[in-house]
Write a structure and sequence with these properties.
The structure holds five protein chains of five kinds.
Chain A (H helix, E strand, L loop, with lengths): L1 H27 L7 H17 L4 H23 L4 H21 L1 H4 L20 H24 L2 H11 L1 H6 L4 H27 L9 H14 L4 H17 L3 H4 L5 H22 L11
Chain B lengths: L5 E8 L6 H20 L7 E8 L4 H14 L4 E5 L2 H13 L3 E4 L5 H5 L5 E3 L4 H14 L5 E6 L2 H16 L6 E5 L7 H9 L4 E5 L2 H14 L4 E5 L5 H7 L1 H4 L3 E5 L6 H14 L7 H20 L5 H12 L4 E3 L2 H8 L4 E3 L18 E7 L2 E8 L2
Parallel strand pairs in B: 1-2, 1-3, 3-4, 4-5, 6-7, 6-8, 8-9, 9-10, 11-12
Antiparallel strand pairs in B: 10-13, 13-14
Helix pairs in contact in B: 1-11, 1-12, 2-3, 5-6, 8-9, 12-13, 12-14
Chain D lengths: L1 E10 L2 E11 L4 E6 L5 H9 L6 E6 L2 E2 L5 H6 L2 E3 L12 H8 L8 H6 L1 H21 L15 H14 L4 E5 L7 H17 L3 E5 L3 H7 L2 E6 L2 E6 L1 H6 L1 H8 L4
Parallel strand pairs in D: 3-8, 3-9, 6-7, 7-8
Antiparallel strand pairs in D: 1-2, 1-4, 4-5, 9-10
Classes of the chains: A mainly alpha, B alpha/beta, C mainly alpha, D alpha/beta, E alpha/beta.
The complex binds adenosine-5'-triphosphate (2 copies) and magnesium ion (2 copies).
Protein name (chain D): Amino acid/amide ABC transporter ATP-binding protein 1 (HAAT family)
Keywords (chain D): ATP-binding, Cell membrane, Membrane, Nucleotide-binding, Transport
GO molecular function (chain D): ATP binding; ATP hydrolysis activity
Chain lengths: ~290, ~375, ~290, ~250, ~230
C-alpha cells in the first residue's frame, strides 16, 4: 500500500508542477496554452536520453527544463500577435507536432517502440527505497517552486502580469513591454513543465509518444480550474484532487459490488465526468475559492 | 504475500483505448476461468482471487494500475497485458515485486528485457508474424507487395518483419504506408498504395481501421488482394463489410490449437460470455491459457508456494516435454505422475527459454464469407 | 505525381473537410453564443452514431432510419446537457465551461459504453463502386456525404442570419444582460442553440459513422481537427469554420504524397500557423478597434 | 512637442481621418472637440500607435514616431487615457495605480529575487504617490476594492488617475469628464492646470464639456467628419458660426 | 403611480450598495436622479430592470410587483432601458440592434422613426455597432430602448459622450416623451440641464436619497448645488 501511495503521490506532484506552470501562464498573464504536454514531453525525452547516455540525471533534468523553455520561445514570440483562442490552437498544434516527431523519429526517440530502460532517480544509491527517495526529491522541488513562484506573483512583477491578463492594450499604453513579459512567463511555465517531464521520465522508466497526447494537457487544465485559477494553492490542491479522482475511482468497485469488472471502466469514467461537472457548478472559483472580493 | 486461502491475481486489460475491442473479452475470460478453477476446488489448495484493472491501452495508466495491483491488492501475478508499451512499462514493476507477468504483446524487445524470467508471452513475436506474412505472399504467388501499417509498435513491426523476410528472399516491396489511428477515412493512404500498382497489400492493422480501409479500397474499384493478421481479418470484419468485399482476403494467425479440447471449450465459453464466436478474439484464448497455466503451476508448486516458486514451475507444466494435457482437471491428475505439457486453446505454448510461446501459423483465405484454412506454416 | 492523382487527393480532402466542418460549425456556434469551446461536441456525435446503429437494428437498415435515430439521440443529449449543466454555467469564464464540457463528454461516453460496450459497430450503407472519369474517382456515397453536410450547414446559416431567432441568438451571445433588458428570452435562445448543435452533431455522427466505424472514441478524436477549423476560420464565424474545415482537409490530404500520412496532421497545423501569422484573428475574423 | 501631420485613415472606404494636422506645443493645453464620430478617438489611437495611419506622420519631441509601437511611444513620455475605460478588473483600485507607476526594479524577473529590498523601498514611494492621487480623485474609500466593481464614473476617474501617475511629458485625455460628477470636474480641471504649470506637462483633451474646454485649453481644435474645421483661441473658435453650426447645432 | 420603488435594498453580493431607497415616477413624468460617482444610481436603475443579483424591498410598475417578473418579461410590461456602459450589441449591425428588440408592434415603421430621430444612424445601418463612435453608440442605445414604445424608460446617463448639439437634441427628445405617453427616469451628471426639463429629482449619495423634490426646488437649493450639481 505504501509504495502505491508513494507512486500516486509522485504522479500528483508531477501534475502539480505542470499545474503551477500552466497556472502561471493562464491564471496570471492570461495566455491560453493548450500544448502544455509538449514541454512536458521535451523535458522528459531530453532528460531520459541524456541519462541513458550516462549524463548525470540532475544535469539531464536541467537540460530538459532549458530545452523546454527554449522551445517555448518562438511560440511565445508568436503570442504577441495572437490572442487567447488563437494561441490555444497554435500551442495545441505544436504539442501534436512534437508528439508526431517523437513517434516518427526513431533514431532519436525510439519511435513507436518507445524508450525503455530509463534509469530511475537514486537507482545507483545503496540506501533507502528508490520510490520514497523520488517522492522526497520531487516534494522538495515542488516546495521550492511553489514558494519561488508565489513570491513572484506577490511582487510588483506579479501585479503587472495580472494587469496584462486584464487588459494588455492598457498596459502597453503605460509603456510596459508586455510582449517581453509574456515571453518570460511562457518560458518559465514551459521550464516547469520540462522539470516535471524529467521527474516523469525517471519515475516511469519507459517513455513513448502515446504518453504525450493532448489529454494530458486537458488534465492539467482540469487541475488548475478545479483548484482555482490564479491561485497558487489552487494548482496544488487541484492536482492532488485530480489524481485522487483518477486513481481513487479505481476503488469505486469496492463500494459498487453489483457492477461487472468491464463495466467498471465506464463507471470510473462517469464518476470523473460527474465530478468535473459538479465541481465547476458548485465551486465557481475553484475549490480554493476567490482570491478576494 | 499471498494469504494461505487465496492466491491473488491481477487481470490488467485494455478495457478502454485502442485495445478495447479485445481487452473486454480478455478480462471476461480471465474472470470466468478463475471462477471455474475455484469451482474445481482451487489450485494448489488455494482459490484464485481476481482483481481486474483497466490499463486504458496506455503505459502510464498501466503502470499506475499495476502498482495498485501489486501494492494494494498484493497480487502474485498480472495477466493479460496487451499493448507492448504497457507490457514493457509494467515489466520492471513485476520484476521488482517477484510477480509473474503473462502478456499477449508482440514486440521482440520484450524477450530481451525478460532477464529475470518472470514474463511469459503467449503471442508470437512480431517478426515471426512478418515471416508468416512473407510465406503467405510467396505461397499465393504475389510479386509486387505493398505494406500498410497502423502506426503503433505492433502494426509497424509486423510489416517490418514482413519486409525483412521478403527482401531477404530477394523480393521487393513496392510501397510502404504507415497510417495514423482514428481517421474517418483512409482514402488518400489507399490511393498512395494503389498508385504504386501492387498486387497485394500486407497489413499490420486492427479490425477498426481495416474495416475502413477495405471499404475505401472496394469502392475505389481497384483490383487488389490483402494479407492481414487474423485479429483484423475475422468474422467481425466479414459481418461489418459483407462477403463481397472480403472475398479472397488472406489472413494469417497463430494456430489456435484446433481440434484440441481446450479450444472447443474456450469457444463455447467465449460465445457464452460475449455472444461472439471465439475466433474473433484470439487474445482471449491466450488469456484462457494463462489462467490454466498459472493454476497448473500453482498445483505443481504445492500449497502456499510463493510466486517465485510458482513461476519456476511454469516450464514444467507448459514446456515442450511431458505428458500432453488439455485442461486443468486433466493436468492436475497427470501432475501426480510427473511432468506435463499443457497444450492450450491458443497454441501448444511450449515456452522457450526467453518465455515466449512459439505457435505455428495458419494461412487462411476468406471465400464466400467463410474463412478457410489454406495452409499451415512453421516459421 | 500526376495532376489527376493530386486532384483525387484534393477530392478526398474535400470530403474529409466537409465532415470536419459539421462539428466545427457546432463548436463555433457554441463559442459564438455561449462563449466556450464545447469539448462534448465530439461525444454528441458519438452517441448520435450509436443512435443510428440502434435505429437500424430496431427499425430498418435504411439511411433514413439511421438519420432519425441519430437526430433523436443527438438532440436529446445536447439539449439535456445544455439544460442541466451549461445553463447553470452561463457567464462563467471560458475555461470553466470548457472543463465542465469535458465532464459532460466523459459522462456521456461512460453511460454509452456502460450499456453498449466497446465493440466497433457499423452503420449499414450500400457499398458502391466509384465513378471513374479519366482517373478521377468520385464516390457516390461521398457525394451524398457532401450534399448532406452542405444541407445541414445551409440550414444553420438560414436560421442564424435569416430568422429573428438567429438575430436573438447573436444578441444573447453579445451581451446577455442587454438582451434580457430588450425582452429576449435567453432560455428559448439557448434551447434553440442546443437543438441546432444536436442536429449538426447528429448529421456529423451518422456521416462519419457510415464512412468509418462506430466506436466510443469516434467523436472525441475529431475534436482537435474541428477545433482547428473553428479557430482558423475566425472564432464564432460559421462561414469561416466551414471554409477552414474544407481548406484544412484538402491541405492535409494533399500533403499525403509528400510528407506521408503521419506528418499530414502536423502539416495542417503548420498551415494554420501561417494563416494566423498573416491573419491573427483567423481567415475571416474581424478586428475590433481600440478606443 | 507632439505633431500629427496630414493624417489620413479610412476603414473600408469610409474616411475617418482626412488630412488631419494637429500640433501640441511644449507645455501646451490643447482642446479637441467635434461632432460624434468626427474621428477624435481615432486620431488619439493614431497618435499613440494603436492604429497605423493610412498616410501622414506623427512626430514627438522632434522625432518621427510613426512606426513605433504603443509601448515605445509611452516610454518616450506620451501617455493617454481611453474613452471607454480599460481598468484592470481583477486588481484592486490601488493596485491599478501601482501598476501604472513607472518603476525601475520591481518589474524585472531578476530583481524580484535578488533585490527585494530595493523593490520594497521603491514600492513605498510609489504607494505614497498612488494614495495621494486616489485621495484627490475621491477614490480613496474604494482603494481596496476590485476595479471590476467600480461604477462607470469611478472607472473613468481611475483611468485618469493612471495617466496622472505616469509622469509623462504629454498626456492625451479622451473625454475624461464624461460621466463624472460636475463638482469633481471643477476640481479635476484645476489639477490639470496645476500639473501643466508646475510640471510643464502638455495636455491634449477631447471633451464635449465646453465650459471645461474654455478653462482648460489655450488652443482648441474642432473636428467634423474627419477634418479639422476650426482651430485657434478657444473663445474665438467657439464663437465661430461655422463651428456653432456643425458642432453645437446653433446653441451655445 | 407608474413606478413605485419602496425601501429598496440592493447589492452585488458584498455589502449593500443601495440602502433602503424609495422613489416614485408618475405617469407622464420626467424624473432625474443625480449624485456623486459611485452613489448607486446605476445600481438603482439596474435593480428596476432586474440586472442586480441581490434585491429586496418592492418595485411596483403600474401596480405589478416587478420583483416577481423575470427581467426578460419586464420589457413587455412597458419598461425600456439604456445602460450606462455596453449599451449596444457590438457584433450586431445597427439595423439588427434595432430589429432584435422584442415586443415591438410595427417594427419597420418604428425603425424608420428612429432613423429619422437620429439621422447619423441611417448612414451606418449595416456597420457593426462596435465600430460606432462613442456618441453614435449612445444614439443607437436610446433608439433601441424606444423601439418597444415603453411606458417608462430608464436612461442611465444618456448624454455622456455626446456632443453639445446632440445633448441638446436628446434633452429635447426626452422632454417630448411624456406627450407620447412615455415617462422617463433619467440618471444624469449634467444635472442642471436635466433638472431643467424634469418635473422632479432625487439626489443620491452613498446608497441613500439625500434630497428630493421638484426640479425648481432642487435647482434653487444652493448648498446642495455646491455639493452635487456643480456650477454649470
Ligand atoms: N474599425 C472600424 N471600421 C469602420 N468604421 C470605423 C471603425 N472604427 C471607427 N470607425 C468609424 O470612425 C468614425 C470615428 O470614430 P471615433 O471613435 O474616432 O469618433 P470620435 O470623434 O471619437 O466620436 P465620439 O465623440 O462619439 O467619441 C466613426 O464614425 C466610426 O463609425
Ligand atoms: N458589478 C459590481 N460589483 C460590485 N460592486 C459594484 C458593481 N457595480 C457597481 N458596484 C459598486 O456599487 C457602487 C455604486 O455603483 P453605481 O454604478 O450604482 O454608481 P453610480 O451612482 O451609477 O456612479 P457613476 O455616476 O459613476 O456611474 C460603487 O461603489 C461601485 O463600486
Ligand atoms: Mg471618441
Ligand atoms: Mg452609473
Amino acid at each position: 500500500m505504501e509504495s502505491y501511495l508513494i507512486a500516486i503521490g509522485t504522479v500528483a506532484l508531477i501534475y502539480a508542477l505542470l499545474a503551477i506552470g500552466l497556472n502561471l501562464q493562464y491564471g496570471f498573464i492570461g495566455m491560453v496554452n493548450f500544448g502544455h504536454v509538449a514541454f512536458f514531453a521535451i523535458g522528459a525525452y531530453t532528460s531520459a536520453l541524456l541519462s541513458i547516455e550516462g549524463v548525470p540525471i540532475f544535469i539531464g533534468m536541467l537540460a530538459g527544463a532549458v530545452l523546454a523553455a527554449l522551445s517555448a520561445l518562438p511560440l511565445s514570440m508568436l503570442s504577441a500577435r495572437l490572442s487567447d483562442d488563437y494561441l490555444a490552437i497554435v500551442t495545441l498544434g505544436f504539442s501534436e507536432t512534437i508528439r508526431i516527431v517523437i513517434q516518427e523519429e526513431n533514431w532519436l526517440t525510439g519511435g513507436i517502440q518507445g524508450l525503455p530502460g530509463i534509469p530511475s532517480l537514486f537507482s545507483s544509491m545503496s540506501f533507502g527505497p528508490t520510490g520514497l527517495m523520488t517522492l522526497i526529491a520531487i516534494s522538495a522541488c515542488v516546495a521550492c517552486v511553489y514558494y519561488a513562484i508565489r513570491h513572484l506573483t506577490r511582487s510588483p512583477y506579479g501585479r503587472l502580469i495580472q494587469a496584462i491578463r486584464d487588459n494588455e492594450a492598457a498596459v502597453q499604453s503605460l509603456g510596459k513591454n508586455t510582449s517581453w513579459l509574456k515571453i518570460q512567463v511562457f518560458m518559465l511555465g514551459a521550464a516547469l513543465a520540462g522539470i516535471a517531464g524529467g521527474f516523469y521520465a525517471h519515475f516511469m522508466s519507459y517513455l513513448s509518444a502515446e504518453q504525450f497526447v493532448p489529454l494530458v494537457t486537458f488534465y492539467v487544465w482540469v487541475a488548475v480550474i478545479i483548484g482555482g485559477v490564479g491561485r497558487m494553492s489552487g494548482a496544488m490542491i487541484g492536482s492532488l484532487l485530480l489524481i485522487a479522482f483518477l486513481e481513487g475511482s479505481r476503488f469505486a468497485r469496492d463500494i459498487l459490488p453489483g457492477v461487472a469488472e468491464v463495466e467498471m471502466a465506464s463507471v470510473r469514467l462517469g464518476l470523473i465526468g460527474l465530478a468535473l461537472i459538479l465541481c465547476t457548478i458548485y465551486f465557481p472559483d475553484g475549490i480554493m475559492g476567490k482570491k478576494r472580493t | 504475500q499471498a494469504s494461505s486461502g487465496t492466491f491473488r491475481i491481477g487481470a490488467l486489460n485494455s478495457i478502454t483505448g485502442s485495445g478495447s475491442s479485445y481487452g473486454v473479452g480478455m478480462q471476461k475470460i480471465i474472470i470466468a476461468m478463475a471462477e471455474r478453477i475455484n469451482a474445481l476446488g482451487g489450485a494448489g489448495g488455494r482459490k484464485l482471487e481476481v482483481f481486474a484493472e483497466d490499463d486504458q491501452t496506455k503505459p502510464e495508466a498501466g503502470v499506475l494500475a499495476a502498482k495498485k495491483l501489486l501494492d494494494v491488492n498484493k497480487v502474485g501475478a498480472i495477466l493479460g497485458t496487451f499493448s507492448s508499451g504497457v507490457t514493457l512499462a509494467v515489466m520492471p514493476l513485476t520484476d521488482a515485486a517477484d510477480a509473474i507477468l503473462m502478456n499477449t504483446s508482440g514486440a521482440p524487445s520484450i524477450s530481451e528485457r525478460n532477464t529475470k524470467g518472470f514474463s511469459w508471452r503467449f503471442e508470437a513475436t512480431n517478426d515471426r508474424y512478418g515471416r508468416a506474412f512473407a510465406q503467405a505472399a510467396k505461397n499465393n504467388g504475389f510479386e509486387r507487395p505493398a505494406t500498410m501499417a497502423f502506426n503503433n509498435a505492433s502494426g509497424l513491426s509486423n510489416t517490418q518483419g514482413f519486409k525483412e523476410a521478403w527482401e531477404a528472399a530477394g523480393g521487393k516491396v513496392v510501397q510502404s504506408v504507415v497510417y495514423e489511428p482514428n481517421r474517418p477515412s483512409y482514402r488518400s493512404e489507399v490511393q498512395k498504395i494503389i498508385e504504386a500498382k501492387p498486387d497485394v497489400v500486407v497489413m499490420g492493422s486492427y479490425l477498426q481501421d481495416t474495416t475502413i480501409i477495405l471499404r475505401e479500397w472496394y469502392q475505389s474499384g481497384y483490383d487488389l488482394r490483402w494479407i492481414m493478421p487474423n485479429w483484423a481479418g475475422n468474422e467481425a470484419l466479414i459481418k461489418a463489410l459483407g462477403k463481397d468485399v472480403c472475398e479472397g482476403v488472406l489472413t494469417v494467425g497463430t494456430i489456435s490449437n484446433e481440434g484440441s479440447p481446450a479450444l472447443e471449450d474456450f469457444n463455447t465459453l467465449y460465445q457464452k460470455l460475449t455472444g461472439n464466436p471465439g475466433s474473433t478474439n484470439s487474445y482471449a484464448s491466450m488469456c484462457y491459457d494463462m489462467v490454466v497455466v498459472l493454476a497448473l503451476a500453482m498445483e505443481a508448486a504445492g500449497p502456499n508456494a510463493s510466486s517465485v516458486e510458482i513461476n519456476a514451475k511454469i516450464p514444467e507444466v507448459a514446456g515442450a516435454d511431458g505428458t500432453v494435457v488439455h485442461s486443468f482437471e486433466e493436468g492436475r491428475e497427470k501432475l501426480k505422475s510427473g511432468k506435463i505439457s499443457y497444450q492450450g486453446a491458443s497454441s501448444k505454448l511450449n515456452f522457450d527459454k526467453r518465455g515466449d510461446a512459439s505457435p505455428d501459423f495458419s494461412i487462411n483465405i476468406i471465400k464466400n464469407g467463410v474463412i478457410e484454412r489454406q495452409s499451415r506454416v512453421q516459421v | 505525381m500526376t495532376f489527376i492523382s493530386l486532384l483525387n487527393y484534393s477530392l478526398n480532402g474535400l470530403v474529409e473537410g466537409l465532415l470536419i466542418a459539421l462539428p466545427a460549425l457546432a463548436l463555433t456556434l457554441v463559442m459564438g453564443v455561449a462563449r466556450f469551446a464545447n469539448a462534448a461536441t465530439g461525444d454528441y456525435m458519438t452517441v448520435s452514431a450509436y443512435g443510428a446503429v440502434a435505429a437500424q437494428k430496431a427499425i430498418a437498415a435504411s439511411a433514413s432510419a439511421a438519420m432519425l435515430g441519430a437526430l433523436a439521440i443527438g438532440i436529446a443529449v445536447s439539449v439535456l446537457a445544455g439544460w442541466l449543466v451549461f445553463r447553470l454555467l452561463r457567464g462563467r469564464p471560458f475555461v470553466t465551461s470548457l472543463v465542465a464540457s469535458i465532464g459532460v463528454a466523459l459522462l456521456t461516453r461512460s453511460v454509452l459504453t456502460y450499456f453498449v460496450g466497446h465493440d466497433p459497430q457499423t452503420i449499414e450503407i450500400p457499398l458502391m463502386r466509384a465513378w471513374n472519369y479519366w482517373g478521377i474517382r468520385i464516390l457516390p456515397t461521398d457525394i451524398a456525404v457532401a450534399a448532406i453536410a452542405l444541407l445541414a450547414m445551409a440550414l444553420v446559416f438560414g436560421i442564424l442570419y435569416l430568422t429573428p431567432l438567429g438575430r436573438e441568438m447573436r444578441a444573447v451571445a453579445d451581451n446577455p444582460d442587454l438582451a434580457r433588458a430588450s425582452g429576449i428570452r435567453a432560455n428559448r435562445v439557448w434551447i434553440t442553440l442546443w437543438v441546432i448543435v444536436g442536429v449538426l452533431c447528429a448529421f456529423g455522427g451518422v456521416l462519419y459513422g457510415a464512412k468509418a466505424v462506430v466506436v466510443p472514441e469516434l467523436g472525441w478524436e475529431l475534436l482537435i481537427p474541428a477545433f482547428a477549423a473553428m479557430v482558423a476560420g475566425g472564432v464564432g464565424n460559421p462561414v469561416g469554420a466551414v471554409l477552414a474545415g474544407v481548406l484544412l482537409g484538402v491541405i492535409q490530404e494533399l500533403s499525403v504524397p509528400f510528407v506521408g500520412p503521419s506528418y499530414k496532421i502536423a502539416m495542417s497545423f503548420l498551415v494554420l500557423l501561417i494563416v494566423l501569422l498573416f491573419r491573427p484573428r483567423g481567415l475571416f475574423g474581424v478586428s475590433v478597434s481600440t478606443r | 512637442m507632439l505633431a500629427l501631420n496630414h493624417i489620413h485613415k479610412s476603414f473600408g472606404g469610409f474616411h475617418v481621418l482626412d488630412d488631419v494636422s494637429i500640433h501640441i506645443p511644449p507645455g501646451g493645453l490643447v482642446g479637441v472637440a467635434g461632432t460624434n464620430g468626427a474621428g477624435k478617438s481615432t486620431m488619439f489611437a493614431v497618435a499613440c500607435g494603436q492604429i497605423a495611419p493610412g498616410a501622414g506622420t506623427v512626430h514627438f519631441l522632434g522625432e518621427d514616431i510613426t512606426q513605433l509601437p504603443p509601448r515605445k511611444r509611452a516610454m518616450k513620455g506620451l501617455g493617454r487615457t481611453f474613452q471607454i475605460p480599460k481598468e484592470f478588473g481583477s486588481l484592486t483600485v490601488l493596485e491599478n495605480l501601482l501598476v501604472a507607476s513607472p518603476r525601475a526594479t520591481g518589474e524585472s524577473l531578476y530583481s524580484v529575487y535578488f533585490h527585494p529590498r530595493a523593490i520594497r523601498r521603491e514600492e513605498r514611494q510609489i504607494r505614497e504617490r498612488a494614495e495621494e492621487v486616489l485621495e484627490f480623485l475621491n477614490l480613496a474609500h474604494v482603494a481596496g476594492k476590485l476595479a471590476a466593481g467600480l461604477s462607470g464614473g469611478q472607472k473613468k476617474l481611475l483611468e485618469l488617475g493612471r495617466a496622472l501617475l505616469l509622469s509623462p511629458s504629454c498626456i492625451l485625455l479622451d473625454e475624461p469628464f464624461a460621466g463624472v460628477n460636475p463638482v469633481l470636474i471643477e476640481q479635476l480641471s484645476e489639477r490639470i492646470l496645476q500639473l501643466n504649470k508646475e510640471r510643464n506637462i502638455a495636455f491634449m483633451i477631447i471633451e464635449h464639456h465646453l465650459e471645461a474646454l474654455r478653462t482648460l485649453s489655450n488652443d482648441l481644435y474642432i473636428m467634423d467628419q474627419g477634418r479639422v474645421i476650426a482651430h485657434g483661441d478657444p473663445s474665438a473658435v467657439l464663437d465661430n458660426p461655422a463651428v456653432q453650426e456643425a458642432y453645437m447645432g446653433g446653441i451655445v | 403611480m407608474l413606478l413605485q420603488v419602496s425601501s429598496l435594498t440592493a447589492g452585488y453580493g458584498g455589502a449593500d450598495i443601495i440602502k433602503g431607497i424609495s422613489i416614485e415616477v408618475r405617469q407622464g413624468e420626467i424624473v432625474t436622479i443625480a449624485g456623486t460617482n459611485g452613489a448607486g444610481k446605476s445600481t438603482l436603475s439596474k435593480s428596476i430592470v432586474g440586472l442586480v443579483p441581490k434585491v429586496s424591498g418592492s418595485i411596483l410598475l403600474n401596480g405589478r410587483d416587478l420583483l416577481k417578473v423575470s427581467p426578460e418579461n419586464r420589457s413587455a410590461l412597458g419598461l425600456g432601458y439604456v445602460p450606462q456602459v455596453s449599451n449596444v450589441f457590438g457584433s450586431l449591425n445597427v439595423l439588427d440592434n434595432l430589429k432584435v428588440v422584442r415586443n415591438v408592434k410595427d417594427k419597420p415603421r418604428k425603425i424608420q422613426e428612429m432613423i429619422a430621430l437620429f439621422p447619423p444612424l441611417g448612414a451606418k445601418l449595416k456597420l457593426p455597432a462596435q465600430t460606432l463612435s462613442g456618441g453614435e453608440r449612445q444614439m443607437l442605445a436610446v433608439a433601441r430602448a424606444l423601439m418597444s414604445d415603453p411606458t417608462l424608460v430608464i436612461l442611465d446617463e444618456p448624454t455622456a459622450a455626446l456632443s453639445p448639439s446632440l445633448v441638446e437634441q436628446v434633452f429635447r427628445l426626452v422632454a417630448r416623451l411624456p406627450e407620447q405617453g412615455v415617462a422617463v427616469l433619467m440618471v444624469e451628471q449634467r444635472a442642471r440641464q436635466a433638472l431643467s426639463i424634469s418635473h422632479r429629482g432625487y439626489i443620491l449619495d452613498q446608497g441613500s436619497v439625500v434630497l428630493s423634490g421638484t426640479s425648481e426646488g432642487l435647482l434653487s437649493d444652493s448648498r446642495m448645488a455646491q455639493l452635487y450639481l456643480g456650477r454649470h
